[in-house]
Structure formats: structure tokens, C-alpha cells
Amino acid sequence: MSISFTFGRTEVIDNTLNPDFVRKFILDYFFEEKQNLRFDFWAISHAVLCYICLIVTLRYELTRTVDCRGIPGKKCGTIILTAEELGNCRDSATMQFCANKLDKKDFFGKSDPFMVFYRSNEDGTFTICHKTEVVKNTLNPVWQAFPIPVRALCNGDYDRTIKVEVYDWDRDGSHDFIGEFTTSYRELARGQSQFNVYEVVNLKKKMKKKKYVNSGTVTLLSFSVESEFTFLDYIKGGTQINFTVAIDFTASNGNPSQSTSLHYMNPYQMNAYAMALKAVGEIIQDYDSDKMFPALGFGAKLPPDGRVSHEFPLNGNIENPYCNGIEGILEAYHQSLKKVQLYGPTNFAPVVNHVARYAAAVQDGSQYFVLLIITDGVISDMSQTKEAIVNVSMGLVLTVNSSFFFSAMVELDGDDIRISSRGKLFVPFRDYMDRTGNHVLSMARLAKDVLAEIPDQFISYMKSRGIKPNPSPPPYTPPGHTQHTQI
């Protein structure tokens, strides 16, 4: 089930079969959702269907050529889609200041100065955007360097006024005003120079005293700018998301031949495990170019000797556990259900460490690893799993719970226990079951919550290791195509 609505229309271009539309459309991109785009050409009754993720995962200027579908058996032309990320001043500035000969405000001492920075607004008002620390008992403070997003400082307008007020801190909160000065981002960007030495002026004091000069000076000691990279910067630079799934084959899931089992092999619809896998996998698979995914099982007795394994390949190939796409994983999963015996216990650590070994070999940011564990939630090796997650060198561990009984799993939820700084690890499947029985909507909601934090966690992972995205390759224009439709 899907809901369609008209987002926008291009201008009309007369008498041409190769239109170059100018009008742009601004869309919100969500990594965690399958966002369908449909393009209808009313004059010739053709349609184009595309997913936004299929555009943003391209390295060539985010451009994709899509065939039109109209009259069966007849070529109806192509549409070339070009997308760009709207970067609203993503730079972050780091600056440091000192002051000299500030006014003395404390009766028994000097001053305890601090500075407050304000961004000017379109209506002439000011909004506070940063406050320095207090430096005690000095008229010549040196404040610590501090980072601040450029958009917070000036909203991307380099000439917009920045007001800075200097105060003497008081314990009761009635801080004494020393003076103020104004500057701009463009001035600050000059760095340490004669242009960035500012007189701190108290207007009331200046009006009262004819010989008043200033209440001290503030000097910019250093200034640097660093670009804040986005998730799409890395995707455009070629970073691949490696998706691995691990499925619980323990006996607590119930006999697959019975309808009460989470592994129930219903000939008419997918079971809970398959639905969760398909919902998450169909979105994340488009961020891996070869769409070959390792698929593991744990907690089962394997033929022929009945050995219990917590790290076995669903396709039966220890040397090559990769499956072709989500459909390949589902096929391997169904085949495994027919061969193995559900047993136990429910140990997570082996599959976490399995993926971690591969992730440890890739430290250059070219690959990012995501592990999806689908389980009934009765975990047996809690301490080992915690240790594996804390020590893991991959970007993220996700757990989707497919059971009504998951109290033990709550301990692994990153919102409750900060065993890592990677956000939510645990999503209860039952919370997403639609009461009307609409599994499509249920799984869309589940996938959205499971995947929503990946972009931020991805950026945090790369930033913590100082990994910058590779530059995008030069633009590629298919032979014979020079026209582009921009979205």
C-alpha cells in the first residue's frame, strides 16, 4: 500500500522531444525510508519510477538515467535526473580570544570576565549563540579556544553583524557589564591581525565621561575553519555500507511447523523474521554496490553431527557466506530452517565478533559495517555481548526483536545503558505490528526506526577516527546525453 500525492510540476517547454527543464524541486531525504519518486509526462503519457536512494548513492554528480515506461515493447525515451545536497553553510569555525586592561569591577579584586556572542537577525534583534568560560580574577584574560558552527554565528551571511558583550561574573547572577564591540564573520576570518583587535566600549560610561576611551581591548588570537562533512559526502566519495544479518535459530522461537513459532513456514505469507529482514534489508541494500551480503545463524544444531553453532552461514558455505541481495538471504534462511535443529543457547557475541573481524581490517572509511540481529530476545551471554559491542570496530550494531518476550533485551538498549555511543541497539518488533494487519505499513515503520540513527552514527564514527570523505569523481555524461532534469 502506498500513498501518492503531487509534489510539483515543471514548466511547459513547447515543441521539443528533448526538454531541459529548469525548475528545481527541494525534497527531504531520509536514509531510513524507501522514498518513491514518480515522474509523469502528460503530453505523451509516459511514467518514470525511481527511488531517491538510487540517486544519492551515485558518485557521478548524483545523476541517474532512468528509462520511461509507456507503450509495451516500445522505447519511450529516458529522463536524466540530477540531484544536489543543499549545504547550508556546513563549516565550523574554531577561534580563541584574549583581552587586555579590562575595567576592574570587583571591589576586593579585579574582574572575573567572560564574553557572550550574539548573532544579528533580519529584524534587527540579536540571538545568543555562544558564551565563553569565566576567567577568574584578572583584567587580562585568555579564554579557551571554542568551536562554533558558522550558521550559528552568522546564518551563512559573512557580513552580518556579530555583537560581543564582555561581563564580569558575579556569583548571584547580577553580572556587571564591562562593554561590547561588533564584528563580522568576514572580519574574523582574517585571523590574528591588526584588524581583529577590538575596543570594548561601555556606551553609558562613554556618555558620562568625556575622556573615556574604552574599557579594554579584545584580541583574536587564532581562527580556523573546518568543513562539517555529511552522510552524503561519504556516500558520494564511494563509502560502501556492508550489511550483515544474523538470525536466531534457538528453540525458544518455537517449532517452525507450528503457527505459534516466529519461524513458522507459512506458505501464504512471510513470518516475523522474514518481514523484519525484508523491511530493513530492502532499504540498506542500495548502499552496497555489489549487493552481496553475509547471512549468519546462531543457536542451532547443524548436520550431520548435531554440533551446536553460534556462527554458521545460512547458505552452508563457510568460506563464502555471502548471499545475492535480500531475496538471496531469504532463500538461504528458508533452506536453513529445513536443515538445522533449533537449539540454544542465545549467544550474540560470536556473530558480533565475526563482523568485527572484517571491520577491523578496513580502517580507511571506504566501508562501514552494519549488523542486524533478529532474535526472540532471550540472551544468554550478556556480559560477553556487552564486551563485544564496546570493543567492536564497526560502525553499528542493530537488534530487531521479533517476540513478545524481550525483558532481558532491554539491558542492551543504548538509550538506557551507554555501553557505546551508538544510540539505540534494540527495537521491539511487537510495537510495530499494525492492528489492521497491514504488514507493509508495519514494516515501513520498523525499518524507519531501526535505520533512522545510522547517518548520525556514521558521521560520529568517521569523525572520531578523523576520516574525511574521498572527493567525488569528475562528472560523467552518458554518450549522446547533454540535457538534465534537476530535482
TrEMBL record:
Is Iron-sulfur there in the keyword field? no
Name a GO molecular-function annotation.
Answer: metal ion binding
* Region ranges (Disordered): 465-487
Query: Which keywords describe this protein according to UniProt?
Result: Calcium, Metal-binding, Repeat
Question: Residue ranges of the C2 domain?
Answer: 75-198
Family indicated by similarity: Belongs to the copine family.
Q: Can you say what this protein is called?
A: C2 domain-containing protein
State the species of origin: Electrophorus electricus
